User: Fold this.
Amino acid sequence: MSRRFLTIVPILALAACSTAEQRPRLRPVVTAEPQIRGDVWQGVATEADKQRISRLGLAWQEALQDAQRGFGREVEAEGPLLRPRAALPRPAPTPGSYNCRLVKLGKATAKAVAFERFKPFFCYVEVEGDLLTIVKQTGSQRPAGRLWEDDRPDRLVFLGSLALGDEEQPVAYGEDPKRDMAGVLERIAPFKWRLVIPWPQSSSKLDVFELTPVAQQPQ
Assistant:
């Protein structure tokens, strides 16, 4: 074997070692699907309430059919409040005090009335951490709950429960299925919102709360 060959072999070996050291090591890459907004509230909602919200369109259809049979003028007079596709962009309400009133639509029982309007009351929108909350302030039945962002940008999802009688606080959502409430909050006009509760645990098929800011906000 010639001296020239013996000289080349170590050089080639060193070059191979140098290339191996410079080559970057491949590392496993872990990827995760980005969480969508709807995943958050659906992780909180009960199965029954997820079903109620998913059937919101059917609730509107059946409730309006019932009401328009004998209360067509009353339904029409409510304007966008009782129009299923009235939602506008930017649904989040400003924190503060609101005039609220309730309209019940549809007959969940044979003896129920298909259209009912109730006297106005006060409710309050507050900030709780990263979420908004809605609380009915007066009356023997006082809904309260949190508003969650949804995949649809024109609505927020409401998950709450009902305080009864002299109770200072409602039971926590999910503790008593008979008191749980679920629906969507939508903006339907400048300074006007509605909270729509499909398939409520009452005699109606759809409960619609109208919210308008109190002109003189408490300090």
User: Anything to note?
Assistant: The helical segments are 3-22, 37-44, 47-54, 56-77. The first strand starts at residue 96 and ends at 105. The chain has a mean pLDDT of 86.
